[in-house]
Structure formats: C-alpha cells, structure tokens
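Consider one such protein record:
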Amino acid sequence: MMCDSPDHLPAPLMGLRRLKEALLFICKWIGIGLVALIALIVSASVIFRYGFNNSIALAEDAAKFLMVWLAFVGAPLGFRHGAHVSIELLPPMPAFARRIIRIIVHAIVLGLMATLAWYGWQFAWNGRNQVALTVGDVSMFWIFVCMPVGASIMALVALELMLTVLLGWPEPTITDEDTISTQGM
C-alpha cells in the first residue's frame, strides 16, 4: 500500500486516501487472480485442443471476458502509478504552471471517468437480460459491470490526486513493493 500518510493531512483527505488505497489493494489482487485464471484457461485450452484433439467450448469467451475485467480493474492501478502512456510535449515550466496543468488533467480524468461510470452502469443494467451462453448462462450484466466499477475507482484516484495537488498537500508515495515495472519485457 502507499506509505506516505503524514499526520498533518486533514481527515477527509486521509479518509479518501485510505479508501483509495484499500480499493487499489483489492484491484491489485483481483488483477493477479485474473491473470492467473486467464493463463490457466488459455493453457488448458491449448493442451486440450492440440493434445487431446478436443477444445474447451467456453475457453475463448471466458478468457476474453476476464481480459476485459482485467483492463478495467488494472486501469486505476496504472493511473495511480503513472504507468499509462504519456507524451511530454511541453517545455520545462515553473512549478506553478505544472501544478495548474496537473490539476486540469486530473479534473479531465475525473470528469471522463464519472461519465464512463454513469453510462457504463446504464449499459450494464441494460445488458442484465442478455445471457452469455458460451460461459454457462451468465448474465452479461456481470461482464459489463466492470466498466462502472473500474471507472469509479479511477475517478476516485483522480479526485484524490487532484485534491492533493490543488491544496498543496503531500502526494502519496509508492513503496518498492507497490512499484509496477516493465523491466525485462
């Protein structure tokens, strides 16, 4: 979890930060579980298809649906850790200008994620009567609900980061065990 929890932060920000940290911790372990499950399903599918000449009917759709969940659960982690794609086009600027730009970017992300959560919920709710037959009569609601879940968590991260920058409070730091790295890839 994030380590920087100074005692001088106001209670509302500390509460928001703790909630965000707990949700990101859950997202991290759900993501790890999803990756393992996808690897298991795809590996079993390949073994059955080429080893026993008998494919697993639900493997393709199950892996696809789990991958969608993985994307929406992993996006808030990537956002918090600064792992999303970024392009630095602006020249070096004074600290005040960088601060204003960061506030604007976090506000835009917050707005977009709130919109995605709202419309994602409507989309999931409308899909509740549809059924994914290939994975065992599962309502499409359970597949589509990853959109509002992931977007809501990402909006929470954006809100906390925006408030932190806006009010000049210390930003949470990332400990070594929380570092997301692409080294070796």
In short: The first helix runs from residue 11 to 51. Residues 11-172 form one domain. The chain has a mean pLDDT of 82.
